[in-house]
Amino acid sequence: MLDPKPYDVVESLAGHDRGKLFLAVGVREGRLLLCDGKNRRLADPKSKSPKHVRVVLRGSEEPASDKVIRTTLAQAAKAAAKEEKLLGER
Fold first, then answer.
1. What pLDDT shows up at residue 46?
2. pLDDT tens digits, one per residue of 65-74
3. What pTM was computed for the model?
4. How many Å apart are CA 16 and CA 5, to the nearest integer?
5. Distance, C-alpha 59 to centroid of its chain
């Protein structure tokens, strides 16, 4: 399993937000800071333990705004759905 790092797209594995995609925007005191650009904005990220997330897509650059985060997460969700469909056809 990959260790989540800042700017990775991650999926929540535990809690009321299980199954949702987030963008990791930083680390504070050993916890990831997560944003989705809608409910959890860049100005107020959610703190979550790294063991409660799974890396979906490696990121490389800092997001400029909440809109960029929403776009990135939508593209990641689309790519993940396409990959699951391809894996299911085998």
1. 94
2. 999 999 999 9
3. 0.86
4. 22
5. 9
